From TrEMBL:
<keyword id="KW-1003">Cell membrane</keyword>
<keyword id="KW-0297">G-protein coupled receptor</keyword>
<keyword id="KW-0716">Sensory transduction</keyword>
<dbReference type="InterPro" id="IPR050427">
    <property type="entry name" value="Olfactory_Receptors"/>
</dbReference>
<feature type="domain" description="G-protein coupled receptors family 1 profile">
    <location>
        <begin position="38"/>
        <end position="284"/>
    </location>
</feature>
<feature type="transmembrane region" description="Helical">
    <location>
        <begin position="99"/>
        <end position="117"/>
    </location>
</feature>
<feature type="transmembrane region" description="Helical">
    <location>
        <begin position="23"/>
        <end position="44"/>
    </location>
</feature>
<feature type="transmembrane region" description="Helical">
    <location>
        <begin position="56"/>
        <end position="79"/>
    </location>
</feature>
<keyword id="KW-0812">Transmembrane</keyword>
<feature type="transmembrane region" description="Helical">
    <location>
        <begin position="200"/>
        <end position="222"/>
    </location>
</feature>
<dbReference type="InterPro" id="IPR000276">
    <property type="entry name" value="GPCR_Rhodpsn"/>
</dbReference>
<keyword id="KW-0807">Transducer</keyword>
<protein>
    <recommendedName>
        <fullName>Olfactory receptor</fullName>
    </recommendedName>
</protein>
<keyword id="KW-1133">Transmembrane helix</keyword>
<dbReference type="GO" id="GO:0016020">
    <property type="term" value="C:membrane"/>
</dbReference>
<dbReference type="GO" id="GO:0007186">
    <property type="term" value="P:G protein-coupled receptor signaling pathway"/>
</dbReference>
<keyword id="KW-0472">Membrane</keyword>
Length: 303
């Protein structure tokens, strides 16, 4: 159980160089604000638009919400710490950050799977689409995603709470996660690391494999479609696939390996905790004509 000889941790951050820290503050503040604005615009556009009522946009609403929350679990702390002399985080705040990061990260994974299922049914089972992807079923699927995320993050926090800390207390990272915490624990963490890999690593690998299989089925079924139908389906699926690759690539790199750390780990983590939530709204708006038209109609009219 938790050893109270360590009641707070010091986050090392991305760098200790004062000049680089000022640059980090400016760059990541801009990126974080862009992330919040981009995802807020998508959430509000889908909520208020009459034309974006299909299941795809229902799931996109929750993806943008999860993106904004996921970025908020790590970015504000990184931005504030860039100007702080001592990057102190209490034990309770650290455990809360572990739970929140895994909850919203897992939520994003499950919503991406739901979006892939929606595209598969729309392209491969078009005549039964409205029956299979009814509003009630979509609601149930989102609830299951929330429950699954809660189970995953509860398992992670259970493992984190089992770790005894008796010093040192410097976390070589910019946020609390199980891998850097395992290095500080006053115990043999081999078994706990196996559990982390079998939990987070398995979710990443299995989800990524399922998504790849679904896109293979979609591409195979497109051979029977018209040229216009094929072009539209490929456009939608390409944007989804780009999101899947840029999110799952770093996650698989971080969570599916033995307890070793590399200098590049922190930059890889930046990519999926801050980069992906920023890129998602850009990808879905720039590559989606319906969202762009709805945004122009809604927001230009209000302005």
């Amino acid at each position: 159980m938790h050893n109270y000889s360590v009641t707070e941790f010091i986050l090392f951050g991305l760098t200790q160089d004062p000049e680089k820290q000022k640059a980090i503050f400016g760059v990541f503040l801009i990126l974080y604000l862009m992330t919040l604005i981009g995802n807020f615009l998508i959430v509000m556009t889908i909520k208020m638009s009459q034309t974006l009522g299909s299941p795809m946009y229902f799931f996109l609403f929750y993806l943008s919400f999860a993106d904004a929350c996921f970025s908020t679990t790590t970015a504000p702390r990184l931005i504030i710490d860039a100007l702080s002399q001592k990057k102190i985080i209490t034990y309770n705040e650290c455990m809360t950050q572990v739970f929140a990061a895994h909850f919203f990260g897992c939520m994003e994974i499950f919503v991406l799977i739901l979006m892939a299922i929606d595209r598969y049914v729309a392209i491969c089972k078009p005549l039964r689409y409205t029956t299979i992807m009814s509003q009630r079923i979509c609601g149930i699927l989102v609830i299951l995603a929330w429950v699954g995320s809660c189970i995953h993050s509860s398992a992670q926090i259970f493992l984190a709470l089992r770790l005894p800390f008796c010093g040192p207390n410097v976390i070589d990272h910019y946020f609390c996660d199980l891998q850097p915490l395992l290095k500080l624990a006053c115990m043999d963490t081999y078994v706990i690391n196996l559990l982390v890999v079998s939990n987070s690593g398995a979710i990443c690998m299995v989800s990524f494999t399922l998504l790849l299989i679904s896109y293979i089925f979609i591409l195979y079924s497109l051979r029977n479609h018209s040229v216009e139908g094929r072009r539209k389906a490929l456009s939608t699926c390409t944007s989804h696939f780009i999101v899947v690759v840029i999110f799952f690539g770093p996650c698989i790199f971080i969570y599916t390996r033995p307890p070793t750390t590399f200098p590049i780990d922190k930059m890889v983590s930046v990519f999926y905790t801050i980069g992906t939530p920023l890129l998602n709204p850009l990808i879905y708006t720039l590559r989606n004509a319906e969202v762009k038209i709805a945004m122009k109609k809604l927001w230009c009219g209000k302005v």
